Amino acid sequence: MCCGLFDDYPDPTFYGGDSPKPEAVERHGKWRVVTVYTRAEAIHDGVLVPYSFIYQGQRYEACFTCALYERYKMYPAALKWIAQRGVRLLAFPSPEDTPSRKRRVILDNQIWAIEDADGLTLLRPEDD
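Structure (tokenized):
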């Protein structure tokens, strides 16, 4: 799960100092990406907690948000259940899927699984 900061400033003079020039900034629809907070940075900062698990003989690498991990870290079986259920639910298509992102509800209003280009992330809805 990668987070970005977007702007919609049409005035190229807005970019001063060391900021990238508008033509050098990646476009995302009508928005320009100003900065990106990568998964690696989120792990380094402690926002995401890496988690490896095996489901049906295949090894998976996922991340829990820190808040969700802290809630269940004393219960390894719960962490494993959440991760495996996320993979199981993501295996089935949903009309809400986009080419770049899938989201499944693991527990109503409590836990979600998101799969995107960065991988599998398990989180609480308020962490998105």
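The helical segments are 39-45, 66-72, 76-90. Residues 3-37 form one domain.
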